[in-house]
Every structure is written in structure tokens, then in C-alpha cells.
Amino acid sequence: MTTNVARTARRNRWAIPGLVLALVAVPFLLGTFEVSLATTALIFAVFAMSLDLLVGYTGLVSLGHAAFFGFGGYVAAYTAIHLTGNLVVVLPVVAGATAVLAVVLGFLALRTSGIYFLMLTLAFGQMLFGLAVKWTPVTGGSDGLAGVPAPFVGIGPLSYVFAGRVRFYYLVVVAVLALGWFLVRVVRSPFGHALVGIKDNEERLASLGYDTWRYKMAAYVIAGVVAGLVGALFVFFNRHAAPENLFWVVSGEVLLMVIIGGAGTMYGPALGAVGVRLFESYVSSYTDRWQTLLGLLFVAFVLFAPGGIVGVVRRWRNRGRAPG
Amino acid sequence: MDQLLPQLVNGLVLGLLLFLIAAGFSLIFGLMDVINLAHGSFLLFGGYVGLSVIRATGNFWLAAAVVPLVTGAVGLLIEVTVLRRTYTRGHLIQVLLTLGLALIAADLMRWNWGAYVESVDAPAALAGLVDFGGVFQVPLYRLAIIGFGLVMAGALWVVLERTRLGAVVRAGVLDREMVAALGIDIDKVVAGVFALGTALAGLSGLLAAPVTSLYPGLDFDFLILALVVVVVGGMGSLKGAFWGALLVGMADVLGKAYFPEFSLFAIFLIMAIVLLVRPQGLFGTREAT
To answer: Does A324 fall in a domain?
Structure first.
């Protein structure tokens, strides 16, 4: 799997510069609506990649990943409203808070695996959603936290405010490239190989002397922190932290992005996320039944293409060759 | 203290409603290894179908007869047409399939029945309050739910433990291939249990409606409680579903009464303790893996 990725990376040596160039060019070529769409698509691309670290590499299928996305957003909104919108402060606070949450939830959820893990993560996510809706003095209840100020860096007259769609888009591009690069490094590292080993055969890795529990916990915390950071970006984009960001539908949607793109490839889920967001934006102008379509997509992919788009492409590319 | 007794009764009411939901959910898991994430959707669907029947005829009892037939039939249809195709393809595929179905169901129900909270009146025969020696009063309808829940628990226990059909189901929970090898058409048993579980879920949606009202989101509110019940009680065990449901129902009601903002924390705490001390659940036999 990983050697495949490495080979693809060598083959596509222009892929990364091309991607950067394309991302930088978006505001020059397209209108504000498309820039906003690209912003959320990029945020969800990294959100899906962080879930892929769990689903595709570690074999932990979480149906509560929106918990970190939404929680990170609330922490960012609360910090920005009550303390400062300086990203040098906000982002470490978000990372620290989501790491603590991931350790607490992981400590319980990682006592199980398989569908039990899926059930627990779903339950934890919905509990956080319930807390966000009910703890009105802190979370703003079902209205959420509105009036989140624009994020900035620097001090006083030397500060740079990410106001306006285009400036914020470039902030997201930088963050997304950095976090995406980080996740790819993680899965290609010895640590990442150990995670794949856990997914394939946890007992074998344990018998080789790996403390698999620590590896799974580390993966869970990394995935949670990255999801929390892009959740913070999403809240700064909307200038509003909404309880819906924690809802199970979001967890289901991001899981669908991973499945559609192809779990265990990193770039597949990123493509899946961009595809789903573009499709959603396109479809929403014609019908209110987006969620039904999302569910139908889910059923269709699960029944007919469980390997996702990447799997379909790979099978097509490998047609006629001997299996293995 | 005058608040505590009525809250305990309410805890019992929620607990027995949860039992009706979790029993089907847990049996379906035990027999089919399917986590049905659309179980809460059947519940809300049952509530809404009942609402429509009551609006058309004004008859709660007719609704109570129609609802389990409708939700059970829809459940059977889904089992036969979609779910059955996934049994050989692993847990994850099945769970994701039911997740897709839950997404579709939630959206279509919001479309058809609207996004507002719809209240349902208790049947006239069960309206009114029962006075407990002037100390506190409880709506008769809630007492009826407690009675019905206990009767259903007894009936399910008798069917599962004292009949041949129950023996087949229990054997299927333990080893499905072996049951099939003995010449029993396990596919029919599985389909029957799925239809029964979804019928029970639909009926409990209607029974819950006068207490909780119906609204989009009720499906997953109850699904999460059912998940917690089976995690606490142990998967595939009727006894576990019963005691888990009572425990979670009590915790939820008391939590809501005394710490309204952190009501879910009480449930979280129970689940956390069970996971730390006994990961397979109070009455579970299998490892939670």
C-alpha cells in the first residue's frame, strides 16, 4: 500500500507543484462564490484525511469524528470572542484542548474495536452535541456562538487580519498544505507503517513487542487534533460555531468522503471530500433533498464500490493483469 | 424529596420504553451481527405513521395496531432487498449501509412530516392523573407504559427461553452456521427477528410520542440511548437489555432533573464505568471486539 503511494508520488513529481499552483490561482480565475466553495472543500479535504488516518491506516472506523471538528470550532470561537483572535494563541489552545478530549475519549473507546468502537464514537459525538445544545451560558445553546471576530497574526499595528474571502482562502491553503503534508509524513513514517500493521494483524504486531494500544491512542490523538484545527478554520470561515458541526450527520458525511475516495490512500479521501462538497453545492441549487442523495450515495458505494473511487481506478488500471 | 418519587416513575417509564427499543436492536445484533443504525429511524417513522393515523381517524388504538405492521413490513422489505446482500461482506459494510438508510430516512421524514415538534395526545381512556395518597400524581398513561413494558419483557422472555422458536433464535445468536446445518431455514428466522425488532421499534415510537413528542432528531436521540443500553447491558442479551435500559432510563431522567445542562454526563459516566470495569457489558458474554 505505502510502496504504491511512494511509487505514485515519484511518478507524479509535478503533482505537488501543480496542486500548489492551482490552489494559488483559484482567486485569480474564479469568483467569490467559487473561492468560498474552495475554502470549505479544502477544509473538509483535510478533515477527511485526518479520519483516513484512523479508518484507512489504523483500522479504527470512527463515526464520531465530527466531535473533534465541532469541539475545535467551539474552542476557537470561545477563545476568539473572550480572549483574542490571534492565531498564534488560538491554534495552540485548540490543539491542546482537542488533544485532551481525544485522550479522554480514546481511553474509553480504544478499550473496544470494530463496531463497538464505531458505536462508542457515535455515542460520544452525540453526547457532545447534546452538551453543546444545552450548555447555553458557554456554548450559546442551539444558536451556537455567533460574532466570532476575524482571525489575525502579529501585534498591534504590525498585525495582519485575515478579513475578506480571498485573504482567508490563502490562510486555509497554507494550513491545508501544512496539515496535509504532516498527515502524509505520518503515514509514511515507521509509525505509520506500524499503524497499517495494527490494521492488518494487531496480534502479530503485539507479539513483535509493539505496544499497539499506545500506537492506536497516538493515531486517535493526531487525527483528533488535526480535525480540531480544521474545525477551528471552519468556524472562522463562518464566523459562527454551530452545534450542527458536531452532529452525527457531519460524522457520517466525512466518513462517506473517506469511503468514496478510497480509505487508506490519503489523497483519495481528500478528493472524495472535494467531490462531495462540489456535488453538494451543485445539487443544493436544484433540490432540498441533499441528505437523501448523500444517503443514496452511501448505499450505492457501500454496495457496489466499497474500495471507493481510488479502488475503482486501480481495478480499471490493473485490468488484465494477474491478481496480486 | 417530593420531586424524587415522580422522577423515579419517569425513569421507569423511559427505562421500559428503552427496553422495547434496545431488545430489538440487541437481538438483531446478536443474531445477525448487524448494528442497525437505522433502528431509531424505525422508531421515529412509527411515531409519525401513528400521528397520521390518529389525525385521520382520531383513534390511538387503531394507530397502535397499524404502526407495528407498517414498520415491521418496511423492516422486512429492507432486510430482504438490501441488508441480506451484505451479510457475507463484513460488519463495516452493514453498518455503513444502515447509516446511509438512516440519512435517507431522516431527510424524507423531515420532508413529509415537517421540522416542527408534533405532540401526540394519550388515548382518552388513559388520560388523567393517578393520585398516590396525595403525595404525588402520575399520568395514567405513563403507568400504562410501565405495565405494557413489563408485559412485553415477560412475553419476550417466555418466547425466547420457553419455546422452540426461541431456542432456534438463541442458538442462532451463538452459532448461525450450525443452526443452518441442522436443517433450519435460518434466513427466515433472521428476517423474522429483523421484522419483529423493527415492529417493536415502531410501536415504541408511537408509545413514546405522548411523552417525548415527535421531532426530527428523536431518531438519533433514542438510537444513542439504545447503543448505551446495549453497551452497558451487554450485546445480544435480553436480560442485559432489560437491566441496562432501566439503569440508563433512570440515569437520564434523574440527570435531566438535577443537572439539566449535563444530563448526558450521567449516562456517559455509567457507560465509562462499565467499559472500564466490564467491557463486555453487565450481562454480556462476548468480548467487545
So the answer is: no
- Report if residue B30 sits inside a domain: yes
Q: What DSSP assignment string belongs to B213-257? A: -B-TTHHHHHHHHHHHHHHHH-TT-HHHHHHHHHHHHHHHHHHHH
In a domain, A230, yes or no: yes
Quick check: B111 and A259 CB within 8 A? no
**Cα(A123)–Cα(B42) distance, integer angstroms:** 18
Number of domains in chain A: 1
The Cα of B263 is separated from the nearest Cα of chain A by a number of Å equal to 8
Residue of A nearest to B232 (CA): A120
* B121 contacts chain A (CB < 8 A): no
DSSP count for chain A of H helices, then E strands = 14, 4
- Best probe of the B interface among A62, A136, A299, A301, by most B CBs < 10 A, is A299
Q: What is the DSSP string of A218-249?
A: HHHHHHHHHHHHHHHHHHHHHTEE-GGGGSHH
Domain count, chain B: 1
Cα B156 to its chain centre, rounded Å, is: 13
When CB atoms are compared, the residue of B95, B100, B103 closest to A118 is: B95
CA distance B172 to B178: 8
Domain CATH number, residue A202: 1.10.3470
pLDDT 10s digits, B50-105: 999 999 999 999 999 999 999 999 999 999 998 888 877 777 788 888 989 999 99
The alpha carbon of A288 is separated from its chain's Cα centroid by a whole number of angstroms, namely: 25
| Chain A touched by B95 (CB under 8 Å) | yes
Those residues with Cβ within 8 angstroms of residue B261's Cβ, 6 or more apart along the chain or in another chain: A131, A134, A135, A136
Q: Which three cell numbers stand for residue A42?
A: 479544502
Give tens-digit pLDDT for A60-100. 999 999 999 999 999 999 999 999 999 999 999 999 999 99
pLDDT tens-digit map of B117-154: 998 988 888 888 888 777 778 889 999 999 999 999 99
> The domain that contains B221 carries what CATH number?
1.10.3470
Give the structural domain span for B98. 4-115+129-277
Which residues form the domain of A261?
A: 2-317
Considering only CB atoms, which chain B residues are within 8 Å of A290?
Answer: 107
**Amino acid letter, residue B247:** L
Is B176 contained in some domain? Answer: yes
Name the residue facing B91 among A112, A115, A299 (closest C-beta): A115
Q: Evaluate whether A229 touches A91 at the Cβ level (below 8 Å).
A: yes
A contacts of B91 (beta carbons < 8 Å): 114-115
Contact between A302 and B93 using a beta-carbon 8 Å cutoff: yes
Q: Is residue B224 part of a domain?
A: yes
